[in-house]
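#onboarding

Welcome to the new folks! Below is a worked example of what a typical request in this channel looks like: someone posts a single protein sequence, and someone else replies with the predicted structure as tokens. Don't worry about understanding the tokens yet, we'll cover that in week two.

Example request:
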Amino acid sequence: NAAGLVGFATLDKYGRGGTNGGTGGQTVTVGTYAQLAAAVADDTPRIVRVSGTITGNGADMLDVGSNKTVIGVGTNATISGFGLDVNGWGPEEVAWGGDLCDPAERDRFTHVQNVIIRNLSFRNSPDDSVNVQCYSHHVWIDHNTFHPSADGSVDIKRGSDLVTVSYNRYVGTDKSMLLGHSDSNGSQDTGYLNVTYHHNWFDGSNTRHPRVRFGYAHVFANYVDVDDYFIGLGVNGRIYAESNHVKGAKTITEDFGNASLTWASSNHYDIATIRRAQSSGSTMSDWLRADGAVSRPSYSYSAGSASSTPPSAGAGVGGADTIP
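Example response:
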């Protein structure tokens, strides 16, 4: 596993032992969309260093193949006007299987695996900034800065699994992080969508930190200063939350389904900064619905204590500007 990686992306499953991205492969530096597209197109191990701002060519998303580390150089590497799609369902698959993968096709195409996306700023995507879908697995999204996109910042869906989302900064984003795209997709998502979210800084962002359907989210040591809700409780979701510092929010949880949440005593918030809690007659379940039914994950980690300042290791770009 790459240095510093913890959580679900470290686990051995699907014939793969953890996540190390392009380690051992060639290192290339790219500065244009065409160079980036060529460097991430195949499944050959490769460390792809992004220099400066790369602007899109009109496509909403760029498919990223397996065994890649896509990492920004310095503190100003930027993906502008498109997003990165960790998704093996490409044009060839669409030709015989339709627009999107479904459970009947799970074993008929190659799933993307072993991808690291690090130290990049994302701006103005016409869709998602980062999308992980179609049974992709072993993905680490670390130390990026997300600015608003037209849709989500980091969406994980359609049977994807074993992802860690760490030390990212979400600046004024709207639909920040979705886990499971649809209430009706249980046949594809049940048993998948295991994701660790830790040490992220939700900096004036709005919703979905994350919103969880069908998956298991381990949400720890995040710094939460949001306009709307922290955790979205969706259909059959399971969330274990600990050591998060909620500086302010409209509500800690928002109900969209029957998700279970364990809210550990190590989380910190001041009820005076939770706006829904100030409504006349409100009870705790109105702004924090937790049933304590979700067990902590089995991997080893240290959640630490809830920090009253944003993550000390520097969430966002610049905290990890060395190649792992």
